[in-house]
Design a protein that fits this description.
By secondary structure, the protein is α/β, with parallel strands linked by helices. It is built from ten helices and eight strands.
C-alpha cells in the first residue's frame, strides 16, 4: 500500500513538473510572438525619435558640412573661397545636414547590371590634322600650338544623370547622361582643334570603390601621355532642397552653371594642389570675361580627387541633377571655348 502511494506521489510530482514546463513554454512563445509583432511597428524614424530634440545652430551645421560638401566649402573666407554667396540660398545648412544623414542611412550599394570591359590603351591616338576651315576661331599658328596639347576626360561616377531626362539622379551600375556631357566636351574640343579623348570606362559598378577604380584610369593616362593640358573628372552637382535648376542665359538659351572643385593637401600630401588651383582660377577668370556667371565658382576640398597625379587636373560639376541635358550640353560647348582661350594664353 505504501509502495503504491509512493509511486502515485512520484507520478504526481512528474505531472506537476510537466505541467509547469508546458505553461512556461507557452508563456515564452506568447511573449515572443507579441514582441516580434511589436517590433514590426518599429521604424527607423521611431528609433531616432529620442534624438529629435537635439539642437544645432546654423554655424555648427556649416562646420559639420564643410569637410564633406562642396557647397559649404570655404565659408570661412579661406583662399579657396571663390563661390558666389547666392549659391547656397535655396536651402539652409541644417536642412542640408539632415538630407545628408538620410542619404547615408538609407543608401544601398549599387549593383552592376552588366559587365564593363576595362580600358586597355589610354594613350591618345595620333590623328592626322585636317586643314581647318577659315572660321576665325583660331589662327593657324595657334591651331598648331593647340594640337600639341592633349585633354583627357573621365567620369568617376559614371552613373550620374539628370532627373528631368532620366527620372532619377543616377543609374546604378550603368552609364548615366554625365557620359554624354563628357562626350560633348570631347567633340567640342576636337571641333575647335584641341585634341581630346573621353575615357568612358564605368568606374562605379561598386559605388564605394569608384575612386579606387578611377585612380587606375588616371595613372594609366598620365603614364601613357605627355603634353596633357587638362585632365578633367566630369560630374554633376546635387544640391539638397534645390527646387529650380540654376541657369544663365547665353545668346537667348539657358545654360547650366559649372562648379570647379580643387582638392587640397589637408588630408594627405598633394604636391600639385596649388598649381591645380591656379589653373582653376585662370579658367574661372576667362569664363567671367567670356560668359559671366557660367562658372559659378571655384571651391577647395580636403580630398585630392586624384589631382595629385597632374598639375592641371580638376573636378568639374556640370549643372546639378535638376538641370536637363540640353542646358548642360550647351555649357559643355561653352566650357570648351573657355579652356581653349586659357590654353592659347599659355603659361
Amino acid at each position: 500500500m505504501r509502495r503504491r502511494n509512493f509511486l502515485s506521489f512520484l507520478k504526481g510530482i512528474v505531472f506537476v513538473q510537466i505541467f509547469l514546463v508546458v505553461i512556461i513554454v507557452g508563456l515564452s512563445m506568447d511573449l515572443n510572438r507579441k514582441y516580434t509583432e511589436g517590433v514590426q511597428f518599429l521604424s527607423f524614424e521611431s528609433l531616432l525619435w529620442p534624438f529629435s530634440g537635439v539642437q544645432i545652430t546654423e554655424r555648427q551645421a556649416e562646420m559639420l558640412l564643410q569637410e564633406n560638401n562642396v557647397l559649404m566649402a570655404g565659408l570661412d573666407n579661406s583662399p579657396g573661397r571663390m563661390l558666389d554667396e547666392g549659391y547656397g540660398a535655396p536651402t539652409a545648412p541644417e536642412k542640408m545636414l539632415s538630407a545628408h544623414i538620410q542619404a547615408l542611412a538609407f543608401a544601398e550599394n549599387p549593383q552592376a547590371d552588366d559587365a564593363v570591359d576595362p580600358e586597355e590603351d589610354l594613350s591618345m591616338a595620333a590623328k592626322e590634322t585636317e586643314e581647318a576651315e577659315e572660321t576665325g576661331v583660331v589662327d593657324p599658328e595657334t591651331l598648331a600650338r593647340l594640337q600639341k596639347s592633349q585633354v583627357f576626360l573621365y567620369c568617376t561616377h559614371s552613373g550620374e544623370t539628370y532627373i528631368p531626362n532620366s527620372g532619377k539622379a543616377r543609374l546604378d551600375g550603368k552609364r548615366g547622361l554625365i557620359n554624354q556631357v563628357a562626350a560633348t566636351l570631347e567633340k567640342s574640343f576636337q571641333e575647335i582643334g584641341l585634341p581630346a579623348q573621353f575615357i568612358d570606362t564605368v568606374h562605379d559598378t561598386d559605388y564605394n570603390k569608384s575612386y579606387t577604380k578611377s585612380r587606375e584610369t588616371v595613372t594609366k593616362i598620365v603614364k601613357a601621355n605627355k603634353n596633357i593640358i587638362g585632365l578633367f573628372d566630369i560630374h554633376r552637382d546635387s544640391i539638397p532642397g534645390e527646387g529650380k535648376a540654376s541657369t544663365i542665359t547665353v545668346n537667348g538659351k539657358k545654360c547650366a552653371r559649372i562648379l570647379i572643385v580643387v582638392g587640397t593637401n589637408e588630408r594627405k600630401p598633394h604636391q600639385h594642389w596649388k598649381e591645380n588651383y591656379a589653373f582653376a582660377e585662370k579658367i574661372y577668370k576667362a569664363g567671367e570675361e567670356m560668359y559671366p556667371g557660367l562658372i559659378k565658382g571655384v571651391v577647395t576640398k580636403s580630398g585630392t580627387y586624384h589631382q595629385e597625379y597632374h598639375p592641371r587636373a580638376l573636378l568639374l560639376e556640370f549643372g546639378s541633377d535638376t538641370n536637363n541635358l540640353e542646358e548642360v550640353s550647351r555649357s559643355a560647348q561653352l566650357f570648351a571655348e573657355i579652356l581653349v582661350e586659357v590654353v592659347k594664353e599659355g603659361d
